[in-house]
Amino acid sequence: MDINEEELKKKLTPEEYAVLRQKGTETPGTGKYLNEKREGMYLCKVCGNTLFASDAKFDSGTGWPSFDQALPGATKLIEDVSHGMSRTEVVCAKCGSHLGHVFDDGPTGTGKRYCMNSVCLDLEEKKSE
Known about the structure:
With 129 residues, the chain is an alpha+beta fold. The chain has a single domain, classed as Peptide methionine sulfoxide reductase (Metal Binding Protein, Guanine Nucleotide Exchange Factor, Chain A, Beta Complex). 12% of the residues lie in helices and 31% in strands. The strands form two sheets. Strands 3-4-8-7-6-5 form a six-stranded antiparallel beta sheet. A hairpin with a 5-residue loop joins strand 6 and strand 7 (98-103). The longest helix is centred in the N-terminal third of the chain and has 9 residues, at 14-22. It starts with a helix and ends with a strand.
């Protein structure tokens, strides 16, 4: 996917751009989806790629929305050795935008904790039937 950075700077808030395109992190405990309970699908803020189902979300107590699994093929994992740490970065498989990191300390059967930044996500609510 071809990304026009100048257009993105106009579309996104400065915080969204800093996190999604410059690998920043939102302040813990401030994200709009941290305590979100509505059902639906979480999408990439930049390209609309569907990333996570709401039933994969759990309260990790870390200050960021957490999921125990991504949808198949929705994300790519990249080794991240910045800031003197060894972590695994999670990016959108479609546009390459930074979403957060994944850790091997999740409480569910997957053993994963996808620690995501709310500013990287949009929630598409499940339609009432």
